[in-house]
Design goal:
- This protein has 496 residues and is an alpha+beta fold.
- Helix content is 55%, strand content 14%.
Length: 496
């Protein structure tokens, strides 16, 4: 897949997910607003009904107290008070009052109809008189209520225990089942009563309703109700939207992982192509050299010259070793393709293994006028390792020191014990590694930039192979390097 196609895919998917997320956010906000508005309406409806009930109860209580203190002449008003419809709730006038139909129907005993006008007028007059007496009574009660009730403090007019019961009942009837706190304040915000010992400051989060809103009085009191868990309730109401949000985020995460995987695969494909091209170029040289040497051996004049034969033999041996080294690099890459190498662990003395590798590698170092220093000071060097792979690890580290050397290579191999671990150090005085490159040196196919040094060959597999093998040995490897001074690799593995 072309890189441009990948970027087009990224842009399209990013645009799609951005739009989807914006729609989700908008839908969540609208749903939260709807739940919040519905909750507010239920609370306000409940508070209005509570205030109305308290207002009606005060009037009823005042009437009963007033009537119970009067003579028997007002018992009819008391009956009216206990009836289904209070007389003072209607706006009748005296002229609109008429006597009931059955009170004006009079029949003569002799069977003849008699005039009912005088009887009807008499009955209506009596009815008007009773009404006027009742109306006068209620007018007196109303006047006294207006004069006395509005001057009383709120503690005398409202039973706070009953208020708590009314609030709980109305909230329940309107579907509000959250715990609440309430305080009663005056018009200046001073707290008159609080349902808790600590007076909570009244803020904009409180719902407010005025007591006795129809009174024209200077003493104004407010009922303020607060729901501590309101926000959590609104969020909990949106729980049905949670699966949709989670699925959207999972889709977005999956998309990001796919894009990262595609980019990584593209990078690896590009690196592998470079590796194949580089490998092909590297194989051509030794193959051409061996082919040329074979052609020279077929020449009769060459067969008679021992010096030429020795030179040709030396070329064939060197180029064969070079081919073997390139094949080993390809085999090392197969470790990464399979994901796990086949390990054959056995108990070995690491000092013996290091001495063997140092002895074989010293020939190369000596040819560059360098030297190897061995400082094998570990008291316990017995470890469980795969001899072939661990030998390749030490060889790769030494070979890197030889490749990235300066004028004279000084290679130091050291060992020591740290508790139950064997530490192996391979230190050189080469060109070193810059700090920004240290974190990537163990990546597959990565090669440290060499600046003006152009004679360093390789495929970026050596250190990646080393890191892989050390991890399979359940060990660790770290690097310490200073550019222009040298590099030090430290391997730690468990001892037996």
């Amino acid at each position: 897949m072309r890189k441009s196609y990948i970027w087009i895919l990224i842009l399209l998917m990013a645009f799609s997910f951005t739009g989807l997320l914006l729609l989700q956010v908008r839908y969540v906000n609208q749903s939260a607003s709807i739940f919040s508005a519905r909750f507010d309406d239920n609370v306000k409806r409940s508070l209005y009904q509570v205030i109305k009930t308290i207002d009606e109860m005060e009037v009823r209580d005042y009437l009963e107290t007033f009537i119970n203190g009067k003579s028997d002449d007002v018992q009819r008003a008391k009956k009216l008070l206990n009836s289904d419809e209070l007389l003072f709730k209607h706006s009748y006038t005296v002229d609109q009052l008429t006597m009931p139909d059955e009170s004006v129907q009079i029949k003569s005993l002799s069977g003849k109809n008699t005039s009912i006008s005088k009887a009807s007028e008499s009955q209506n007059q009596q009815y008007r008189e009773r009404f006027l007496r009742s109306k006068a009574l209620f007018d007196e009660v109303t006047a006294k209520l207006m004069n006395d009730a509005s001057t009383k403090p709120i503690e005398k007019r409202v039973d706070f225990v009953l208020l708590d019961e009314l609030l709980s009942k109305e909230f329940y009837n309107n579907g509000v089942e959250l715990p609440f706190h309430y305080v009663i304040t005056d018009k200046n915000g001073k707290i008159i009563f609080s349902c808790h010992d600590d007076n909570m400051p009244v803020t904009k989060d409180f719902y407010r309703q005025q007591f006795f809103p129809n009174e024209n009085s200077d003493k104004i009191y407010f009922l303020n109700v607060f729901f501590p868990t309101r926000s959590a309730y609104i969020v909990h109401s949106l729980k049905l939207l949670l699966p949709s949000i989670i699925l959207t985020m999972l889709m977005f995460l999956t998309f990001m992982l796919i894009i990262l995987y595609l980019l990584r695969q593209k990078r690896l494909t590009s690196i592998k192509n470079d590796f194949i091209n580089n490998m092909t170029h590297e194989l051509k040289t030794p193959i051409s050299s061996v082919s040329l040497a074979a052609q020279m051996l077929s020449d009769n004049s060459v067969n008679t010259n021992p010096k030429i034969l020795a030179h040709i033999s030396h070329v064939i041996i060197d180029e064969t070793k070079r081919l073997s080294f390139l094949v080993d690099k390809v085999l090392q890459m197969s470790v990464f393709e399979r994901g796990r190498a086949t390990m054959n662990f056995q108990e070995l003395d690491m000092h013996e293994l290091l001495e063997t590798v140092v002895g074989n590698f010293s020939l190369k170092v000596n040819n560059t006028n360098g030297k190897i220093i061995s400082q094998l000071n570990a008291q316990n060097a017995l470890v469980m390792v795969d001899e072939m792979h661990f030998t390749n690890v030490i060889y790769n580290l030494m070979d890197n020191a030889l490749k990235y050397r300066k004028e004279t290579l000084i290679l130091t191999v050291s060992t020591w014990n740290d508790k139950n671990k064997l530490c192996i150090s391979i230190e050189d005085n080469g060109v070193g590694i810059k700090r920004e490159n240290l974190k990537r040196i163990f990546d597959q196919f990565y090669r440290v930039p060499t600046g003006n040094v152009h004679n360093v060959k390789g495929f970026g597999l050596g250190l990646a192979y080393v890191s892989k093998i050390i991890k399979l040995h359940r060990g660790t490897i770290k690097v310490e390097s200073e550019y222009g001074i040298g590099t030090k690799f430290i391997i730690e593995i468990l001892t037996v």
